[in-house]
Task: structure prediction
Amino acid sequence: MEQIKEIFKKRNVWLVILLIAFVIVLVIAINKYNQKKEQEKREAEIKRKALENKVTEKEQELNQYMRKLWGDNAHWMRNYIISYMGGGKDVRESAGRLLKNQEQIGRAMGMWYGKDVGKKIIEMLQKNMVAFGDMLSAMVNKKRNDAIVAEKRWSDNTDSLASYLSSINPRFDKIELSQHLKKYNELMTTQAINRYRGKHASEINSFDKAYNQANFDIADTITKGIVQQFPEKFDREPSEVEPVSSKEVETKE
Result:
């Protein structure tokens, strides 16, 4: 009788274990199903908005690519800040990866405007990187005046970049681009300052803003300009794009 009770007891234990396992598997399956449905819902909403705004599939592909490149830029800028401020051993590697991202951005623009233009953009982006690195160095070494000078050089280089982009494409508004790029610089500078001061919550908040600035303001503005300049490449009719007046072109030149 005791043996039978023991058998039933063990069987009940296993039943409970199997029940718990079943519930866990069921919960995981339900979560995956809900996540899949949520993803499908988001994708459907994106397509709906794209149709409303007459955004073609090719335009979406370009926009996603530009967002990835500029989002990566924000990511590797942050990585470089953290490594440099902390005296990490991976500073060289972080800088190298950031430079690679800038090369990717230049080559991406070169696909539309030629290799020489791509190389010029890479050169200008890397001049920005040098000024940014000089600013970080001055901050770490508590050389306030040197930091201000380096930041000013970074800002001037950014103006030059915006001017150059508007010169190769009259659809790029020089003032708008300059504002977006300088706002990005400002947020990255704030992030570096917060990192240096150990204000990590503020630092993360600055990064989030910088990432959004890169993703939605810079990348989207560049995408819009390219699409407006080459509407036929994106399955859009030239009539859908407002013509650029000669006065506007003269102003940009």
